[in-house]
Amino acid sequence: xxxxxxxxxxxxxxxxxxxxxxxxxxxxxxxxxxxxMLQLFNERLQVVDWTxxxxxxxxxxxxxxxxxxxxxxIDCPIPMAVIKAIQVEISGAVPKDVVxxxxxxxxxxxxxxxxxxx
Length: 118
Description:
Layout (H helix, E strand, L loop, with lengths): L1 E6 L6 E8 L4 E8 L2 H9 L2 E3 L12 H9 L7 H12 L29
Antiparallel strand pairs: 1-2, 2-3, 3-4
Helix pairs in contact: 1-2
C-alpha cells in the first residue's frame, strides 16, 4: 500500500491517496477528500491497469483523460499525484516528494485585491 497526502493549493482542499497493487497489473485507487470533483474522479477511476496510462504521454493517459471529464481546474495536482502513487506502488518510481514552492518577490507580494487607482 502506498499512501500520499496532498495539499491541493489555492482551492484549499486536501486529499489522501491510497494505492494498492492487485493481480493482473491492476492497482486500486482510493481518494479521500471533501472536494466533490475529486470524489467523482475517484468514482470513475477506482481500478487502473498500470500498463495503460501510467507511463504514457499526457494525452494517452487514462488518469488524465478521466481528470479531463471530472476536474474543472487544470492546475489541480491530484492527477499527477495519482500517477506518482501508482508508480511507487508498483516499484516503478522511488517515493520522492514533489514540491512546488513560490519564491516571494514584488509581484507575488502585492495585495490580493488592490484598490482601484484614482
